[in-house]
Design a protein that fits this description.
The chain is an alpha/beta fold. The protein contains ten helices and nine strands. Bound molecules: zinc ion (ZN).
């Protein structure tokens, strides 16, 4: 059998032996010959296959990183929290915070089940107890597992909606759709703005918030809430409609209180101590 008849030319990194072509490096075959010897084609030797595999893996890795990057941008997570992870959380904090950390970690680990069941959490407590940071940890953990997450607050949503009336980037409906459909929505600092004006009429956001929350409720989409207020206070003090509060209560499968000294205060005290 003459390999040249099959149009196969020996390359610099190959050698021929007994009508077969081998790789000089790994000494495995570079051609495939059919049993009746009528059919000869080039194939990859072992080292070429390994190299190809490696390239594919690198390409996949690149795609994964790109996807995570896109998801992180889409998540709207503030720059301050870009690197917040459960691993690098400062755990020198009150017991209730540590408990909340465990709950949040468990939440992330059980994501597949949580997603199917649409479980949510309501995390509340004093200002500066680290609630947002915890939510940022969840956001970073899940986006790295390719889960689309949006973390935002009513003020930001309200700004976006108002801007949508004057620019053509996104319509109001598109914004609401996005918030309603994202796999996990984290609404931070719920109740920061009152939803009733001084004359007791509804604020601009009253209806929009109900709309987003209700859509998620109906579709059993997991939603996390953080607030300085307990759920009841949203109704009693922050002007939320009863139907919205009812939905939030139903969607929050666990209500977690984070209390104690505000974390910012502890850090501050610590700094003072160090200074002394
Ligand atoms: Zn080889």
């Amino acid at each position: 059998m003459n390999l040249i008849d099959y149009g196969i030319k020996l390359r610099a990194d190959e050698y021929a032996k007994d009508s077969m072509i081998y790789c000089k490096k790994c000494h495995t075959q570079r051609i495939f010959v059919s049993e009746d010897k009528k059919f000869v084609v080039r194939c990859l030797c072992e080292c070429q296959s390994e190299e190809k595999e490696k390239q594919l893996e690198l390409e996949k890795q690149k795609q994964r990183l790109e996807k995570v990057k896109q998801l992180k941008e889409m998540s709207l997570l503030g720059r301050k929290y870009k690197n917040s992870t459960f691993e690098n959380l400062d755990l020198n904090r009150p017991e209730s915070f540590l408990k909340a950390v465990k709950r949040c970690q468990a939440y992330c680990k059980a994501w597949d089940e949580i997603k199917n069941k649409g479980y949510g959490l309501y995390l509340y407590g004093d200002v500066g107890t680290g609630k947002t940071e915890l939510m940022a940890c969840i956001c970073n953990y899940l986006t790295e597992k390719f889960v689309p997450v949006i973390i935002t607050n009513f003020l930001e949503i309200s700004k976006k909606l108002r801007a949508s009336y004057t620019n053509e980037l996104e319509t109001e409906n598109e914004i609401i759709e996005k918030l309603s459909r994202v796999d996990l929505l984290i609404l931070d600092d719920v109740g920061a703005e009152k939803l009733k004006k001084k004359d007791n009429t509804d604020s601009f956001m009253q209806e929009k918030i109900y709309d987003i929350i209700n859509r998620r409720y109906i579709n059993q989409m997991p939603t996390l809430f953080t607030s300085n207020y307990c759920i009841q206070d949203l109704l009693d003090e922050r002007g939320f409609e009863e139907r919205t509060v009812d939905r939030i209560a139903e969607m929050s499968n666990a209500v977690i209180k984070v209390d104690g000294d505000s974390y910012r205060e502890i850090v501050c005290k610590r700094k003072t101590k160090e200074a002394l």
